[in-house]
Design a protein that fits this description.
4-stranded antiparallel sheet; 32% helix; alpha/beta; 12 strands; 8-stranded mixed sheet; 341 residues
Length: 341
């Protein structure tokens, strides 16, 4: 049995916001999410902007305090740990940030940026740290003599490599990659992805990979999770979700991915969803997708569906419940979902 590095159980993160005369209200950014990640595995996380992907990643790392739920890292529930209790776990849990321009201190040299985590945790002597920084620079494809330079002297791709080197400084076992390639040129994106895969193969690190590029997520991920309005709608093996999505939202999301082949692009039918994304302050009762789903059933408006197991994956949709599974073919689902753009 493969070792589980991380288990998330019924995790919620709600933000309280002040709406002026309307008073304090709650944004349900992450709502009752559960999954696990094994050693050396990458779980890709996709969904529209504002669905709660980054909030989930930051809550797992305790950058945001969880509202409720469990975060089991190597069997230990860290959800309620104090800052002091979390300190040794900071070495094992790290994050690669989205913006390589904003995530590096412009007043620090590259050596100071990468060496700072070792300084905070009081690891190695100054001379040993410098040697370690040079080794990390070589690991991410930069030169050891870059140690004296400042972030503004590097390109976007090189800055992201510096950020990755800083993340590796403490030999982490789990990394949240929060859209690490979205701010980079396409040619550089592939280099960063190849670097992350190489590091994972060599060190057995587990990733939670958050991104909008579905093709890139499929390439790097072992499994894919699809989020919508703070909820996990579908999760399964990457090839299964990518080639044959089950949830209606997953189908619509994947149909929007650009295809480089013009003939294939013209032949494919784009699924257009009607209506606006509901506010996370006032989410609809029941399934959050019921306001845009073309074939929502009565139960969808009353209660959030459980995650039903179908073909080895989890799907939060009543159409895959035992009640509707036998009737699904007679519901004529595909024509309802397939509207040409």
């Amino acid at each position: 049995m493969e070792e589980k590095v991380l288990e998330v159980k019924n995790l919620c993160k709600f933000f309280e916001v002040n709406r002026g005369f309307q008073g304090a209200q709650v944004v349900q950014a992450v709502n009752d999410i559960s999954f696990d990640i094994k050693k050396g595995e990458t779980l890709g996380l996709v969904g529209e902007s504002g669905c709660g992907k980054s909030s989930l990643g930051r809550t797992i790392l305790r950058i945001y305090e969880p509202t409720k739920g469990q975060i089991l890292f190597q069997g230990e529930d860290i959800a309620g740990f104090s800052r002091r209790q979390m300190l040794p776990y900071r070495q094992k849990l790290q994050m690669i940030f989205q913006d390589p321009y904003a995530s590096l201190n412009p007043r620090f040299t590259v050596g100071e940026i990468i060496g700072e985590p070792m300084d905070i945790h009081n690891i190695l002597t100054p001379s040993q740290r410098e040697k370690r920084v040079q080794e990390l620079l070589e690991t991410v494809g930069l030169k050891p003599d870059h140690i004296r330079r400042y972030p503004h002297e590097f390109s976007g791709g090189q800055r992201q490599r510096i950020g990755i080197a800083r993340t590796l400084a403490l030999n982490p076992e789990f990394i949240v990659c929060d859209e690490p390639i979205s701010a980079l040129d396409v040619s550089i994106q592939a280099q960063v992805i190849n670097l992350l895969e190489k590091i994972q193969k060599e060190r057995g690190i587990s990733y939670l990979f958050i991104a909008h590029d579905l093709g890139m997520v499929k390439h790097i991920s072992h499994r894919i999770g699809v989020m919508y309005l703070g909820h996990m709608m579908e999760m399964g093996m990457a090839n299964d979700v990518y080639k044959k999505p089950l949830h209606p939202y997953s189908k619509a999301l994947l149909s929007a991915e650009p295809i480089p082949d013009p003939k294939s692009a013209r032949a494919r039918k784009r699924i257009l969803l009607e209506g606006e994304i509901p506010s996370p302050i006032h989410p609809p009762k029941g399934c959050p997708f019921n306001t845009r789903c073309p074939y929502a059933v009565a139960e969808c408006f009353n209660q959030m569906p459980a995650a039903f197991r179908v073909d080895g994956r989890q799907v939060a949709c009543y159409l895959y419940s035992p009640k509707y599974l036998r009737k699904r073919e007679s519901l004529n689902i595909e024509p309802l979902l397939s509207k040409e753009a």
